[in-house]
Amino acid sequence: MQETYQIVSKIQRYDPDNDRSWIQNYQLETGRILQFTDLFRKINKELDPTLAWNSSCEHGQCGTCSVKINGKPMLACELLVENAVVHFETTEFLIEPLTIAPVVRDLIVDFDKAYERVHKIKPYIIEPVANPNSGNEYKIAPGHLQRYVDATRCINCFCCATACISSHHNFLGPNAIMASVVRLMDLREQAKDERKTLLYSEEGVYRCHTSRACSFVCPKEIDVAHFIALAKSGALESDA
Amino acid sequence: MGRFVGQRVIESLADQLPELPADTGQKSFSLFASYLDQTGKENLEKIREESRALMTEKVGVFRTEVGLSEAVEALKALKERAANTTLACKSLKMNPELILRWELDNLLSISLVTAVCALNRRESRGGHARQDFPERKDEFNYHTLATMTAFAEVDLGKRAVDMSIFESHCEHHERFGMIERKY
Ligand code: SF4
Ligand code: SF4
Fold it and tell me: Buried b / exposed e across A194-228, counting CB within 10 Å, b at 16+?
Protein backbone atom coordinates (compact mmCIF):
# COMPACT_ATOMS: atom_id res chain seq x y z
CA MET A 1 0.00 0.00 0.00
CA GLN A 2 1.11 3.55 -0.73
CA GLU A 3 1.72 5.93 2.15
CA THR A 4 0.10 8.95 0.50
CA TYR A 5 -2.31 9.59 -2.34
CA GLN A 6 -2.94 12.47 -4.71
CA ILE A 7 -6.69 12.81 -4.37
CA VAL A 8 -8.83 14.79 -6.77
CA SER A 9 -12.21 15.70 -5.25
CA LYS A 10 -14.77 17.03 -7.68
CA ILE A 11 -17.34 18.55 -5.42
CA GLN A 12 -20.81 19.62 -6.43
CA ARG A 13 -21.27 23.09 -5.02
CA TYR A 14 -24.30 25.30 -4.62
CA ASP A 15 -24.35 28.94 -3.60
CA PRO A 16 -27.83 29.77 -2.26
CA ASP A 17 -27.20 33.53 -2.33
CA ASN A 18 -26.71 33.60 -6.10
CA ASP A 19 -28.59 30.36 -6.88
CA ARG A 20 -25.52 29.07 -8.68
CA SER A 21 -24.28 25.46 -9.02
CA TRP A 22 -20.93 24.24 -10.25
CA ILE A 23 -18.42 21.43 -9.85
CA GLN A 24 -15.21 22.46 -8.14
CA ASN A 25 -12.00 20.46 -8.31
CA TYR A 26 -9.75 20.19 -5.28
CA GLN A 27 -6.41 18.44 -5.46
CA LEU A 28 -4.79 17.29 -2.24
CA GLU A 29 -2.11 14.98 -1.01
CA THR A 30 -3.48 12.88 1.84
CA GLY A 31 -2.45 10.04 4.09
CA ARG A 32 -3.91 6.54 3.71
CA ILE A 33 -6.28 6.44 6.63
CA LEU A 34 -8.02 9.76 6.34
CA GLN A 35 -11.81 9.73 6.67
CA PHE A 36 -13.68 11.62 3.96
CA THR A 37 -15.02 14.00 6.63
CA ASP A 38 -11.38 14.82 7.44
CA LEU A 39 -10.72 15.20 3.74
CA PHE A 40 -13.43 17.91 3.67
CA ARG A 41 -11.88 19.46 6.75
CA LYS A 42 -8.48 19.46 5.02
CA ILE A 43 -10.01 21.19 2.02
CA ASN A 44 -11.49 23.82 4.37
CA LYS A 45 -8.13 24.28 6.03
CA GLU A 46 -5.78 24.26 3.09
CA LEU A 47 -7.76 25.18 0.00
CA ASP A 48 -11.19 26.64 0.56
CA PRO A 49 -12.79 27.69 3.86
CA THR A 50 -16.15 28.20 2.17
CA LEU A 51 -16.88 24.56 1.28
CA ALA A 52 -19.93 23.54 3.35
CA TRP A 53 -20.51 19.97 4.51
CA ASN A 54 -22.17 18.33 7.47
CA SER A 55 -21.22 15.92 10.20
CA SER A 56 -21.86 15.26 13.84
CA CYS A 57 -20.60 12.06 15.51
CA GLU A 58 -18.07 11.07 12.82
CA HIS A 59 -18.22 7.40 13.74
CA GLY A 60 -21.16 6.12 11.72
CA GLN A 61 -23.86 6.51 14.35
CA CYS A 62 -25.77 9.66 13.47
CA GLY A 63 -26.29 9.71 9.70
CA THR A 64 -25.44 13.39 9.28
CA CYS A 65 -22.52 13.16 6.84
CA SER A 66 -24.20 11.13 4.06
CA VAL A 67 -23.13 12.20 0.57
CA LYS A 68 -22.95 10.57 -2.86
CA ILE A 69 -19.43 9.48 -3.75
CA ASN A 70 -18.99 8.45 -7.38
CA GLY A 71 -22.74 7.94 -7.45
CA LYS A 72 -22.98 5.78 -4.34
CA PRO A 73 -24.69 7.22 -1.26
CA MET A 74 -22.53 6.59 1.80
CA LEU A 75 -21.38 8.01 5.12
CA ALA A 76 -18.36 10.25 4.53
CA CYS A 77 -17.07 9.45 8.02
CA GLU A 78 -16.94 5.73 7.35
CA LEU A 79 -14.99 5.92 4.12
CA LEU A 80 -11.20 6.02 4.37
CA VAL A 81 -9.12 7.32 1.48
CA GLU A 82 -7.32 4.01 1.13
CA ASN A 83 -10.55 1.98 1.03
CA ALA A 84 -12.12 4.44 -1.40
CA VAL A 85 -9.20 4.07 -3.80
CA VAL A 86 -9.60 0.28 -3.68
CA HIS A 87 -13.40 0.30 -3.84
CA PHE A 88 -13.75 2.75 -6.72
CA GLU A 89 -10.44 1.86 -8.40
CA THR A 90 -9.57 5.53 -8.82
CA THR A 91 -8.14 8.52 -6.97
CA GLU A 92 -10.75 10.83 -8.49
CA PHE A 93 -14.01 11.24 -6.63
CA LEU A 94 -17.18 13.01 -7.64
CA ILE A 95 -18.86 14.09 -4.41
CA GLU A 96 -22.48 15.24 -4.48
CA PRO A 97 -25.20 15.98 -1.94
CA LEU A 98 -28.04 13.53 -1.31
CA THR A 99 -31.00 13.85 -3.65
CA ILE A 100 -33.83 13.35 -1.16
CA ALA A 101 -34.26 17.00 -0.17
CA PRO A 102 -33.37 20.46 -1.48
CA VAL A 103 -29.72 21.48 -1.13
CA VAL A 104 -29.08 24.25 1.39
CA ARG A 105 -25.44 24.85 0.44
CA ASP A 106 -22.83 22.65 -1.26
CA LEU A 107 -23.10 19.18 0.33
CA ILE A 108 -25.71 20.13 2.93
CA VAL A 109 -29.34 19.21 2.28
CA ASP A 110 -32.44 20.26 4.17
CA PHE A 111 -32.76 17.42 6.68
CA ASP A 112 -35.96 18.84 8.16
CA LYS A 113 -37.54 18.32 4.78
CA ALA A 114 -36.10 14.80 4.48
CA TYR A 115 -37.36 13.92 7.95
CA GLU A 116 -40.92 14.97 7.12
CA ARG A 117 -41.49 11.53 5.62
CA VAL A 118 -40.13 9.76 8.67
CA HIS A 119 -42.26 11.90 10.97
CA LYS A 120 -45.29 11.18 8.82
CA ILE A 121 -45.14 7.47 9.68
CA LYS A 122 -44.79 8.33 13.40
CA PRO A 123 -41.52 6.63 14.35
CA TYR A 124 -42.66 5.62 17.83
CA ILE A 125 -45.28 3.34 19.38
CA ILE A 126 -48.47 5.28 18.65
CA GLU A 127 -50.72 3.37 21.03
CA PRO A 128 -48.85 1.14 23.48
CA VAL A 129 -50.56 -1.92 24.98
CA ALA A 130 -50.81 -2.12 28.76
CA ASN A 131 -47.67 -3.73 30.13
CA PRO A 132 -48.55 -7.24 31.37
CA ASN A 133 -45.47 -7.25 33.61
CA SER A 134 -44.80 -5.09 36.62
CA GLY A 135 -42.18 -2.37 36.25
CA ASN A 136 -41.08 -0.56 33.14
CA GLU A 137 -39.74 -3.52 31.27
CA TYR A 138 -41.83 -5.07 28.50
CA LYS A 139 -40.56 -8.56 27.79
CA ILE A 140 -40.25 -9.60 24.17
CA ALA A 141 -39.10 -13.14 23.37
CA PRO A 142 -35.67 -13.16 21.69
CA GLY A 143 -37.07 -15.24 18.82
CA HIS A 144 -39.65 -12.59 18.08
CA LEU A 145 -37.21 -9.70 18.40
CA GLN A 146 -34.86 -11.48 16.03
CA ARG A 147 -37.32 -10.92 13.19
CA TYR A 148 -36.87 -7.18 13.21
CA VAL A 149 -33.95 -6.31 15.48
CA ASP A 150 -31.74 -5.49 12.46
CA ALA A 151 -34.14 -2.77 11.37
CA THR A 152 -33.88 -1.06 14.75
CA ARG A 153 -30.25 -0.21 13.93
CA CYS A 154 -31.35 2.33 11.29
CA ILE A 155 -29.80 5.77 11.81
CA ASN A 156 -31.89 7.61 9.19
CA CYS A 157 -28.91 8.55 7.08
CA PHE A 158 -31.16 8.52 3.98
CA CYS A 159 -28.55 6.66 1.93
CA CYS A 160 -31.19 4.06 1.04
CA ALA A 161 -33.73 6.72 0.13
CA THR A 162 -31.16 8.38 -2.14
CA ALA A 163 -30.31 5.09 -3.85
CA CYS A 164 -33.98 4.11 -4.21
CA ILE A 165 -35.00 3.79 -7.84
CA SER A 166 -38.60 4.70 -7.04
CA SER A 167 -39.69 8.32 -7.06
CA HIS A 168 -38.64 10.64 -4.25
CA HIS A 169 -41.80 12.68 -4.75
CA ASN A 170 -44.65 10.26 -4.14
CA PHE A 171 -43.00 7.42 -2.21
CA LEU A 172 -42.40 7.57 1.55
CA GLY A 173 -39.03 5.92 0.89
CA PRO A 174 -37.35 2.82 2.29
CA ASN A 175 -36.24 4.08 5.71
CA ALA A 176 -39.61 5.64 6.56
CA ILE A 177 -41.47 2.53 5.40
CA MET A 178 -39.15 0.30 7.39
CA ALA A 179 -39.61 2.43 10.51
CA SER A 180 -43.34 1.77 10.32
CA VAL A 181 -42.92 -1.93 9.51
CA VAL A 182 -40.76 -2.35 12.61
CA ARG A 183 -43.51 -0.92 14.80
CA LEU A 184 -46.12 -3.11 13.14
CA MET A 185 -44.01 -6.11 14.11
CA ASP A 186 -43.58 -4.74 17.62
CA LEU A 187 -45.89 -6.49 20.10
CA ARG A 188 -46.37 -3.26 22.02
CA GLU A 189 -48.07 -1.40 19.17
CA GLN A 190 -51.87 -1.35 19.00
CA ALA A 191 -52.38 1.24 16.28
CA LYS A 192 -51.97 -1.33 13.52
CA ASP A 193 -54.79 -0.05 11.33
CA GLU A 194 -53.48 3.49 11.31
CA ARG A 195 -50.06 2.19 10.27
CA LYS A 196 -51.46 -0.07 7.55
CA THR A 197 -53.60 2.69 6.06
CA LEU A 198 -50.48 4.73 5.31
CA LEU A 199 -48.29 1.76 4.37
CA TYR A 200 -50.77 0.54 1.76
CA SER A 201 -51.66 4.02 0.51
CA GLU A 202 -50.63 5.71 -2.77
CA GLU A 203 -47.25 6.68 -1.30
CA GLY A 204 -46.74 3.35 0.42
CA VAL A 205 -45.08 -0.01 -0.23
CA TYR A 206 -46.48 -0.59 -3.70
CA ARG A 207 -44.25 2.18 -5.06
CA CYS A 208 -41.29 -0.11 -4.35
CA HIS A 209 -39.89 -2.12 -7.28
CA THR A 210 -37.98 -4.59 -5.08
CA SER A 211 -34.73 -3.60 -6.78
CA ARG A 212 -32.90 -3.86 -3.43
CA ALA A 213 -30.74 -0.81 -4.16
CA CYS A 214 -31.61 0.29 -0.60
CA SER A 215 -30.21 -2.88 0.99
CA PHE A 216 -27.12 -2.63 -1.20
CA VAL A 217 -26.06 0.80 0.09
CA CYS A 218 -27.17 0.68 3.74
CA PRO A 219 -24.12 1.49 5.92
CA LYS A 220 -25.68 -0.41 8.82
CA GLU A 221 -26.02 -3.47 6.56
CA ILE A 222 -29.77 -3.67 7.03
CA ASP A 223 -31.68 -5.61 4.40
CA VAL A 224 -34.16 -2.76 4.02
CA ALA A 225 -35.91 -4.28 1.01
CA HIS A 226 -36.66 -7.41 3.04
CA PHE A 227 -38.80 -5.42 5.48
CA ILE A 228 -40.63 -3.70 2.64
CA ALA A 229 -41.23 -7.12 1.06
CA LEU A 230 -42.66 -8.39 4.36
CA ALA A 231 -45.15 -5.52 4.29
CA LYS A 232 -46.04 -6.24 0.68
CA SER A 233 -46.79 -9.88 1.44
CA GLY A 234 -48.58 -8.99 4.68
CA ALA A 235 -46.27 -11.27 6.71
CA LEU A 236 -45.94 -8.87 9.58
CA GLU A 237 -47.68 -10.21 12.62
CA SER A 238 -47.29 -13.99 12.65
CA ASP A 239 -44.57 -15.24 14.93
CA ALA A 240 -41.59 -16.92 13.34
CA MET B 1 -30.82 18.81 24.24
CA GLY B 2 -30.51 22.59 24.57
CA ARG B 3 -34.25 22.95 24.16
CA PHE B 4 -34.97 20.47 26.97
CA VAL B 5 -32.53 22.21 29.27
CA GLY B 6 -34.21 25.53 28.48
CA GLN B 7 -37.65 24.08 29.17
CA ARG B 8 -36.52 22.68 32.51
CA VAL B 9 -34.94 25.99 33.48
CA ILE B 10 -38.20 27.81 32.76
CA GLU B 11 -40.11 25.15 34.71
CA SER B 12 -37.87 25.41 37.74
CA LEU B 13 -37.93 29.20 37.70
CA ALA B 14 -41.73 28.99 37.70
CA ASP B 15 -43.16 32.41 38.59
CA GLN B 16 -39.80 34.01 39.21
CA LEU B 17 -39.14 34.52 35.49
CA PRO B 18 -37.24 37.79 35.17
CA GLU B 19 -38.22 40.37 32.53
CA LEU B 20 -36.18 40.01 29.36
CA PRO B 21 -33.89 43.00 28.83
CA ALA B 22 -34.98 45.28 26.00
CA ASP B 23 -31.87 44.53 23.95
CA THR B 24 -32.31 40.73 24.04
CA GLY B 25 -30.58 39.14 21.07
CA GLN B 26 -28.83 42.38 20.20
CA LYS B 27 -25.54 41.19 21.67
CA SER B 28 -25.47 38.04 19.53
CA PHE B 29 -26.50 40.02 16.49
CA SER B 30 -23.70 42.54 16.87
CA LEU B 31 -21.21 39.78 17.65
CA PHE B 32 -21.97 38.03 14.36
CA ALA B 33 -22.05 41.32 12.50
CA SER B 34 -18.55 42.05 13.82
CA TYR B 35 -17.33 38.65 12.57
CA LEU B 36 -18.61 39.46 9.10
CA ASP B 37 -17.18 42.99 9.11
CA GLN B 38 -13.73 42.32 10.51
CA THR B 39 -10.72 42.32 8.21
CA GLY B 40 -7.07 41.33 8.47
CA LYS B 41 -4.47 38.91 7.23
CA GLU B 42 -4.57 36.34 10.05
CA ASN B 43 -5.62 32.77 9.28
CA LEU B 44 -8.52 31.31 11.26
CA GLU B 45 -7.41 27.69 10.96
CA LYS B 46 -3.86 28.55 11.93
CA ILE B 47 -4.98 30.29 15.13
CA ARG B 48 -7.14 27.30 15.98
CA GLU B 49 -4.23 24.90 15.43
CA GLU B 50 -1.91 27.04 17.53
CA SER B 51 -4.39 27.21 20.40
CA ARG B 52 -4.79 23.45 20.26
CA ALA B 53 -1.02 22.88 20.43
CA LEU B 54 -0.68 25.45 23.21
CA MET B 55 -3.36 23.80 25.37
CA THR B 56 -1.86 20.34 24.87
CA GLU B 57 1.61 21.54 25.74
CA LYS B 58 0.97 23.90 28.64
CA VAL B 59 -2.49 23.09 30.02
CA GLY B 60 -2.45 19.31 29.69
CA VAL B 61 -2.35 16.93 32.65
CA PHE B 62 1.09 18.05 33.87
CA ARG B 63 1.10 21.76 34.63
CA THR B 64 3.38 24.39 36.15
CA GLU B 65 2.98 28.00 37.27
CA VAL B 66 5.30 29.15 34.47
CA GLY B 67 3.61 27.12 31.73
CA LEU B 68 0.09 28.12 32.79
CA SER B 69 1.00 31.80 33.02
CA GLU B 70 2.55 31.64 29.56
CA ALA B 71 -0.59 29.96 28.27
CA VAL B 72 -2.79 32.76 29.64
CA GLU B 73 -0.66 35.40 27.89
CA ALA B 74 -0.50 33.39 24.65
CA LEU B 75 -4.30 32.96 24.65
CA LYS B 76 -4.79 36.71 24.98
CA ALA B 77 -2.50 37.20 21.97
CA LEU B 78 -4.42 34.58 19.97
CA LYS B 79 -7.68 36.32 20.84
CA GLU B 80 -6.31 39.54 19.42
CA ARG B 81 -5.15 37.81 16.27
CA ALA B 82 -8.57 36.20 15.85
CA ALA B 83 -10.01 39.69 15.46
CA ASN B 84 -7.74 40.21 12.44
CA THR B 85 -9.18 37.50 10.23
CA THR B 86 -11.31 38.01 7.14
CA LEU B 87 -14.14 35.67 6.25
CA ALA B 88 -14.17 34.62 2.60
CA CYS B 89 -17.88 33.87 2.73
CA LYS B 90 -20.16 36.58 4.15
CA SER B 91 -23.44 34.73 3.75
CA LEU B 92 -25.82 34.04 6.63
CA LYS B 93 -27.09 30.85 5.00
CA MET B 94 -25.31 27.78 6.41
CA ASN B 95 -21.91 29.47 6.46
CA PRO B 96 -19.34 27.02 7.90
CA GLU B 97 -16.62 29.65 8.09
CA LEU B 98 -18.78 31.94 10.21
CA ILE B 99 -19.50 29.05 12.58
CA LEU B 100 -15.77 28.28 12.76
CA ARG B 101 -15.07 31.91 13.65
CA TRP B 102 -17.66 31.83 16.45
CA GLU B 103 -16.34 28.47 17.62
CA LEU B 104 -12.81 29.86 17.79
CA ASP B 105 -13.93 32.61 20.17
CA ASN B 106 -15.69 30.05 22.35
CA LEU B 107 -12.65 27.75 22.32
CA LEU B 108 -10.36 30.59 23.33
CA SER B 109 -12.72 31.60 26.15
CA ILE B 110 -12.96 28.08 27.55
CA SER B 111 -9.19 27.59 27.19
CA LEU B 112 -8.50 30.79 29.08
CA VAL B 113 -10.88 29.96 31.92
CA THR B 114 -9.34 26.48 32.18
CA ALA B 115 -5.83 27.91 32.42
CA VAL B 116 -6.81 30.54 35.01
CA CYS B 117 -8.56 27.96 37.20
CA ALA B 118 -5.56 25.62 36.94
CA LEU B 119 -3.27 28.46 37.89
CA ASN B 120 -5.32 29.14 40.99
CA ARG B 121 -5.40 25.52 42.15
CA ARG B 122 -1.93 25.22 43.64
CA GLU B 123 -2.18 21.54 44.40
CA SER B 124 -2.47 18.25 42.50
CA ARG B 125 -5.74 16.35 42.28
CA GLY B 126 -7.00 13.76 39.80
CA GLY B 127 -6.22 14.82 36.24
CA HIS B 128 -4.77 18.13 37.42
CA ALA B 129 -1.10 17.44 38.18
CA ARG B 130 0.81 20.53 39.22
CA GLN B 131 4.48 19.58 39.04
CA ASP B 132 5.32 22.52 41.27
CA PHE B 133 2.65 21.48 43.82
CA PRO B 134 2.56 17.67 43.76
CA GLU B 135 0.55 17.30 47.01
CA ARG B 136 -3.22 17.29 47.35
CA LYS B 137 -4.36 19.98 49.82
CA ASP B 138 -7.52 20.10 51.92
CA GLU B 139 -7.89 23.84 51.44
CA PHE B 140 -8.84 23.09 47.83
CA ASN B 141 -11.67 20.70 48.71
CA TYR B 142 -14.23 22.60 46.64
CA HIS B 143 -15.50 22.98 43.09
CA THR B 144 -14.25 26.09 41.30
CA LEU B 145 -16.97 28.30 39.83
CA ALA B 146 -15.61 30.65 37.19
CA THR B 147 -17.36 33.65 35.67
CA MET B 148 -15.95 35.55 32.72
CA THR B 149 -17.77 38.75 31.79
CA ALA B 150 -15.22 40.05 29.30
CA PHE B 151 -12.34 38.12 27.75
CA ALA B 152 -9.64 37.33 30.35
CA GLU B 153 -11.60 38.97 33.16
CA VAL B 154 -12.25 35.92 35.28
CA ASP B 155 -13.84 35.85 38.73
CA LEU B 156 -13.34 32.69 40.72
CA GLY B 157 -15.89 31.40 43.20
CA LYS B 158 -16.41 28.19 45.14
CA ARG B 159 -19.05 25.55 45.60
CA ALA B 160 -18.84 23.02 48.39
CA VAL B 161 -18.42 19.35 47.53
CA ASP B 162 -21.61 17.36 48.14
CA MET B 163 -20.75 15.08 51.07
CA SER B 164 -24.35 14.19 51.95
CA ILE B 165 -23.93 10.44 51.45
CA PHE B 166 -20.85 10.33 53.67
CA GLU B 167 -22.51 12.46 56.33
CA SER B 168 -25.77 10.47 56.28
CA HIS B 169 -23.96 7.55 57.96
CA CYS B 170 -25.95 5.16 55.79
CA GLU B 171 -24.63 1.73 54.91
CA HIS B 172 -21.21 1.90 53.17
CA HIS B 173 -21.09 5.67 53.78
CA GLU B 174 -17.41 5.38 54.72
CA ARG B 175 -16.61 4.68 51.07
CA PHE B 176 -17.76 8.16 50.12
CA GLY B 177 -15.25 10.03 52.29
CA MET B 178 -12.61 12.27 50.80
CA ILE B 179 -9.37 10.44 50.29
CA GLU B 180 -6.34 10.98 48.17
CA ARG B 181 -6.46 9.12 44.88
CA LYS B 182 -3.41 6.91 44.57
CA TYR B 183 -2.21 4.51 41.93
S1 SF4 C 1 -31.97 1.76 6.42
FE2 SF4 C 1 -29.76 1.96 6.33
S3 SF4 C 1 -29.39 3.32 4.60
FE4 SF4 C 1 -31.52 3.54 5.15
S5 SF4 C 1 -31.59 5.29 6.52
FE6 SF4 C 1 -31.44 3.45 7.78
S7 SF4 C 1 -29.25 3.19 8.14
FE8 SF4 C 1 -29.45 4.61 6.42
S1 SF4 D 1 -36.21 -2.20 -3.11
FE2 SF4 D 1 -37.87 -0.71 -3.15
S3 SF4 D 1 -37.37 0.72 -1.54
FE4 SF4 D 1 -35.50 -0.44 -1.98
S5 SF4 D 1 -34.42 0.81 -3.49
FE6 SF4 D 1 -35.68 -0.63 -4.62
S7 SF4 D 1 -37.56 0.46 -5.02
FE8 SF4 D 1 -36.52 1.59 -3.42
Answer: ebbebbeeebbbebbeeebbbbebbbbebbbbbbb
- Strand A66-69, strand A4-15: pairing: unpaired
| Phi–psi pair at A163, nearest 5 degrees | -75, -20
Domain assignment of residue B9, yes or no: no
For residue A240, being part of any structural domain is answered with no
- Interchain proximity B44–A49, CB inside 8 Å: yes
Give, using CA atoms, the residue closest to atom 5 of ligand 1.
A156
Interface predicted TM-score of the whole assembly (ipTM), two decimals: 0.75
Average pLDDT over residues A42-48: 94
Distance A154 CA to ligand 1 centre (A): 5
Distance CA B45, CA B59 (A): 20
B1 and A CB contact within 8 Å: no
Residue A76 lies in a domain: yes
Q: What is the pLDDT of residue B183?
A: 67
pLDDT at A239: 47
CA A42 – CA A28 distance, rounded (Å)? 8
Residue B156 is part of a domain; what is its CATH number? 1.20.58.100
Which of A44, A49, A105 has its CB closest to that of B94?
A105
Q: What burial class does residue B178 get, using C-beta atoms within 10 Å of its C-beta: 0-12 exposed, 13-18 middle, 19+ buried?
A: exposed
